[in-house]
Amino acid sequence: MTRRSFVKLTENINEIREAIRQHGQRGAEKLRRQNGLAKAVLVFLKTNPFRQDLHQYSPSLLLELPRPTADSREILHTAGYALERIYRKGYLYQKGGVMLLDLIDADRQQLSLLDTPQSDAEQQRSAKLMSAMDALNQRMGRDTVKLGMPSPGAAWHLRCAHRSARWTTRWDELPTLYAG
After folding, report:
1. DNA polymerase Y-family little finger domain: which residues (predicted)?
2. Above 60 in pLDDT, residue 117?
3. Could you tell me the domains of the chain?
């Protein structure tokens, strides 16, 4: 599951779509790292349950993928379709997320009688493309290659201004002492 609260409440469908796209991409990357495939995608939105002055709405929709996949494009297409079906104008959303469900190991995938050599070639091409994307992102830095361009300052961007130091998990953030 990949989810995050938005920096500010928003009803802008484009900002929410970008967030869902970002979450779906992260989930697919994690899935490929684990050599897994997903059979279904769940997309959800939430309004702020602590704001009694606002109307509450917390929809979710589970959609089955056409075939088990770790391809970001297929996951994002399905997630985008789910978002279009659950989004309602007039609500201020606080959080959105994507959950990949019914996970299987890529090496133990159940074969289908309906698969053709063309679909097998397409799956191999897809795996090569996703592998190349992951390799570039690993070598050049996270989000070097991504699907879709996020708008700057969107409500879903992570704001780290008040984050505490991460000395125990980041070598580059260890305090440095200089003897003078």
Report:
1. 2-113
2. no
3. 2-105+114-158 (3.30.1490.100)
